[in-house]
Automatic annotation (TrEMBL):
Residues 148-249 form the PpiC domain. It catalyses: [protein]-peptidylproline (omega=180) = [protein]-peptidylproline (omega=0). Transmembrane segments: none annotated. Gene3D superfamilies: 3.10.50.40. Residues 22-38 have a biased composition (Basic and acidic residues). This is peptidylprolyl isomerase. Belongs to the PpiC/parvulin rotamase family. It comes from Thermomonas beijingensis. InterPro entries: PPIase_dom_sf, PPIase_PpiC, PrsA_foldase, Trigger_fact/SurA_dom_sf. Residues 22-44 are annotated as: Disordered.
Length: 302
């Protein structure tokens, strides 16, 4: 997208997903360390990013990148640049409206943070979803509102460290032998658990009880929730070793009533509306203050 179209392009922000308020997030990474950052032969770091007549240097972006981890340095740089542009847009609007004089006592907040909070409270509408909005969303997304699936599991752990190649090979081989025997004599599971398992559950016959998704080690969790009732035909591998697994029962999560999830739906919809309103507000600020250079930075991260 050309720079001439930047005023009509949405500027993505991620502050709504943060646990902090928008005002806090907008200024939480602001620093005054002009003596830090990349330098070349004693010269100040170059600037390729501008909001109006304000330059955002590569040193500024480099300092901000530590707060925007990503899969590539280019993506981290783009995220940092975008965050700095948002911060500068908000700062300029606070200055234009003269809000500094309206903040009587910032308390523990930094003045810039308090001004930004006041700006967003005044300029961005905070709409609470109606009962009808929540009911409509509930009716349109029934698959999202169920109690967690759960399974009742017994296991026998043949333990081996991750870096013990020989030990893990032997553990798998032993697990396969136990499965072969248990197919013929399933009643021996409790006895085998007591004799062979390296898990404290062996004293209870390998019983793990009812498990919901996310309660067990991730790799074990992913595999056992794909199993049907009965003895698994193969050993289940985890960081702890190999498991002989028997699924005794499977229960699909029951549908949750609207009253059980109404507050969750309301919070979610309010968050979505707030995000949309902020996007529109920032887009309006971009039309007021020219932003240059961000397109090129984001194109390099694509």
């Amino acid at each position: 997208m050309s720079e001439s179209k930047l005023g009509r392009r949405e500027l993505p922000i991620t502050v709504i997903d943060s646990g902090k308020s928008v005002a806090e997030e907008a200024h939480s990474h602001a620093h005054d360390h002009n003596d830090e950052g990349p330098r070349s032969l004693g010269q100040a770091a170059p600037s390729f990013l501008f909001v109006g007549d304000t330059a955002i240097s590569e040193a500024d972006i480099a300092r901000e990148m530590q707060f925007h981890r990503a899969m590539t340095p280019e993506k981290s740089r783009a995220d940092a640049a975008r965050a700095l542009v948002v911060r500068e847009l908000l700062r300029r609007e606070v200055e234009r409206l003269g809000l500094q004089g309206d903040v009587q006592d910032a308390g523990s907040e930094a003045m810039e943070e308090a001004c930004t909070r006041l700006l967003l409270e005044r300029e961005v509408e905070n709409r609470v979803p109606t009962l009808e909005d929540c009911q409509r969303y509930y009716a349109q997304n029934p698959e999202r509102f169920h109690a967690p699936d759960r399974i009742r599991v017994r296991h026998i752990l043949l333990g081996a460290a991750v870096d013990d190649v020989s030990g893990r090979f032997n553990a798998r081989e032993q697990a396969e032998k136990l499965i072969t025997e248990l197919k013929l004599q399933p009643h021996l599971f409790t006895d085998f658990a007591l004799r062979h398992s390296d898990c404290p559950s062996k004293d209870d016959g390998g019983e793990l009880g009812w498990l919901e998704r996310g309660q067990a080690t991730p790799e074990f969790d992913r595999q056992v929730f794909r199993l049907r009732e009965g003895l698994a035909a193969f050993p289940v591998e985890s960081r702890w070793g190999y498991h002989v697994v028997c699924v005794d029962a499977v229960e699909s999560g029951e549908e949750l009533a609207f009253d059980q999830v109404r507050q969750r739906i309301s919070d979610y919809l309010e968050l979505q509306v707030r995000q949309r309103e902020l996007q529109q507000y920032l887009q309006g600020l971009q039309e007021r203050y020219e932003v240059r250079g961000l397109d090129a930075i984001e194109a390099g991260a694509a």
